[in-house]
Amino acid sequence: MVDIAIVDYGMGNLRSVYQAVRKVAPSASVQVTDDANVIAAAKRVIFPGQGAMPDCMRELDARGLRQAVLDAAQNKPFLGICIGLQMLFEHSAEGDIPGLGVLQGEVVRFAHELRDAQGNKLKVPHMGWNGVHHADHPLWAGIAQDARFYYVHSYYVQPRDTDIVQGTSDYPQPFVCAVSRGNLFAVQFHPEKSAAAGLKLLENFVNWNPV
Amino acid sequence: MLAKRIIPCMDVTAGRVVKGVSFVELRDAGDPVEIAKRYDEQGADELTFLDITASSDDRSIIFHIIEKVAEQVFIPLTVGGGVREVQDVRNLLNAGADKVSINTSAVVNPQLVADAAGRYGSQCIVVAIDAKQVAPGKWEVFTHGGRKATGLDAVEWAQKMQTLGAGEILLTSMDQDGQKKGFDLALTRAVTDALEIPVIASGGVGNLQHLADGVTLGGADAVLAASIFHFGEYTVQQAKQHMAQQGIEVRL
């Protein structure tokens, strides 16, 4: 049984996530895995994702990992990252497809021709370091209000239940970048690429004991 | 709001960071892993490595470097140089790169950009464009380190790369590169205004004001520089403070 399973469904490179988790939890056993049994037995699960959500959903099912991810999202400390956050919702505008439906709400795209207050064009994908306005949650412990995290994405989540929102960033309007429910926490940015703030969030996750 | 990024760039050959003018008189700037750690500590937003190794025999060296850096530095890493097929993209990502930069091969085989973006996602595909001015308000794409003209218009080419799935454009002015007189701001502005994806300005930085100008006048989403950081003229932190003083949003 591993302490931390990182779900590998063939989309993108999980080495960065693995390295960052090893850095904050050097004594924990960490495994990048596409084995549903390993995920089921792990104490904690990290659910990353890169690329396009339709590809991610297809590959997750092709490897028979849907049920293992659904179970983990219900019953153990679970961290979704980037597309791993978006896949938890009911539906995505990217490819007009259903998600896993763990959380209620939609995944939508940033508008075309976005402008900031000075009239400068805002590019999509939203790429780079943006400040996070965060709520009070154990995973934000020791992380300054408005600390910057690294993002690269064109879509973002719109939860139906705003009580699950744990953080927002501005581009230029506020968008939801972190949600939680019970044992589940999920973020749009990449903590594994967000220097000290990101490592702190990962450290908080590996030490988190939700009731 | 989103910060403008400062990206130190390291040209790597035979396991060392080097800097030269027009690929001659390469000057040794040190060990890439140590330099990467230093820039991370100074607050660099990303790091770019360009493998300028001529011989394919020595290609494996870059993988070991990226592996070592990725174990110790937790910010995005871009790697370019000699990327010819999807397998090259895969190998670099597996070594720890977050993004792979494609330059000459995108011109030779544009489908490579589409295939790589389709397989690994646009977020990890950077297309590098080397451009030279050929007429007022007009720039041509060059390949092979600026030696070979392509006949392609730089703005149109950037738009085509966006359509094929590039997530970002690394735009270098061959006229300005190594001159330390600042970016080609008209080129930067022309390309960034024509695109929806982010543009990294490159080529010509000699002082900190050049970095700020790339953002405020050129409209760049990120600015890349090499020699002003390598030889201790300025730190990344100083560059950010200078930009912040001019009202540019940066990660301090």
Short description:
Chain A has 211 residues and is of the alpha/beta class. Chain A has helices at 15-24, 36-41, 53-62, 66-75, 83-86, 195-206, and strands spanning 4-7, 30-33, 44-47, 78-81, 91-92, 97-98, 105-109, 114-115, 121-122, 126-131, 133-134, 148-153, 155-159, 165-170, 174-181, 184-187. The two termini of chain B are 13 Å apart.
CATH topology-level name of chain A: Rossmann fold
Strand pairing plus helix content of chain B: what structural class? alpha/beta
Strand content of chain B: 25-35%
Radius of gyration of chain B: 17 Å
* Helix content bin of chain B: 25-40%
Catalogue the unreliable spans of chain A: none
Provide the CATH top-level class of chain A.
Alpha Beta
Radius of gyration of chain A: 16 Å
CATH H-level name of chain A... which superfamily? Answer: Class I glutamine amidotransferase (GATase) domain
Task: Give the neighbour order of strands across the main sheet of chain B.
Answer: 1-4-5-6-7-10-11-12
SSE ordering of chain A: EHEHEHHEHEEEEEEEEEEEEH
Largest interface: A-B, 39 and 35 residues
Number of separate helices of chain A? 6
Largest sheet of chain B: 8 strands, parallel, barrel
Separation, N- and C-terminal Cα atoms of chain B: 13 Å
Tally of DSSP helical segments of chain B: 10
What does this molecule look like?
The complex is a heterodimer of chains A (211) and B (252). Chain A has 211 residues and is an alpha/beta fold. Chain A has one domain (4-206): Class I glutamine amidotransferase (GATase) domain (Rossmann fold). Helices cover 25% and strands 31% of the residues of chain A. Chain A contains 6 helices and 16 strands. In chain A, the strands form 4 sheets. In chain A, strands 2-1-3-4-16-15-14-11 form an 8-stranded mixed β-sheet, with helices on both faces. A 4-stranded mixed β-sheet of chain A has the order 6-5-7-13, with no helix packed on it. In chain A, strands 8-9 form a two-stranded antiparallel sheet. In chain A, strand 8 and strand 9 (121-122) form a beta hairpin. In chain A, helix 1 packs across helix 6. Chain A is globular and about 55 Å long. By secondary structure, chain B is an alpha/beta fold. Chain B has 10 helices and 12 strands. An 8-stranded parallel β-barrel of chain B has the order 1-4-5-6-7-10-11-12, surrounded by 8 helices. In chain B, a hairpin with a 2-residue loop joins strand 1 (5-13) and strand 2. In chain B, helix 6 (154-164) packs parallel to helix 7. The longest helix of chain B has 13 residues, at 60-72. The two termini of chain B are 13 Å apart. The mean pLDDT of chain B is 93. The interface between A and B is large, with 39 and 35 residues.
